Amino acid sequence: MELKEMLKWGVLMVVSGVVTAVAIQLVTKQLEDKAILAARAELERLMVAAASQRTQQEVVTQIPSNGPGTHIVL
User: Fold this and answer.
1) Is 73 exposed, middle or buried (0-12, 13-18, 19+ CB in 10 A)?
2) Transmembrane residues, as ranges (predicted)?
3) What confidence tens digit (pLDDT) does each residue in 16-56 have?
4) Which pTM value belongs to this model?
5) Which helix (H) or strand (E) holds 64?
6) Where are the alpha helices (DSSP H) in 1-74?
7) CA distances to 31, 42, 52, 53, 72 from 46, in Å
8) 60 and 53 in contact (C-beta within 8 Å)?
């Protein structure tokens, strides 16, 4: 094999390695973005559920025991 031919193969190997590395980085970035979006959605769901539960607890504790519509029999 000539030196020129070996250089062509060497350059081809380097270029293919660079293309592979860039492709891996792009796919990894997309997967990271999807994972971040999924984590944010789950966190938002948990925060809404916690806020809803807290609101329900506050409403229950604010209802007076002798409020309108209740009768006290002595």
Assistant:
1) exposed
2) 6-27
3) 999 999 999 999 999 999 999 999 999 999 999 999 888 87
4) 0.57
5) none
6) 3-62
7) 22, 6, 10, 10, 41
8) no
* Angle value at C-alpha 31, between 23 and 16, nearest 5 degrees: 10
Whether pLDDT at 3 is above 60: yes
What DSSP character marks residue 67? -
User: Which residue has tokens 């009768």?
Assistant: 71
Structure tokens at 33: 């973005």
Which positions ≥6 away from 72 have C-beta within 8 Å? 66
**What is the rounded distance in angstroms from the CA atom of residue 46 to the CA atom of residue 44?**
5
Contacts of 66 (CB under 8 A, 6+ apart): 72
Distance of CA 59 to the CA centre of its chain: 32
Encoded tokens for 18: 């660079």
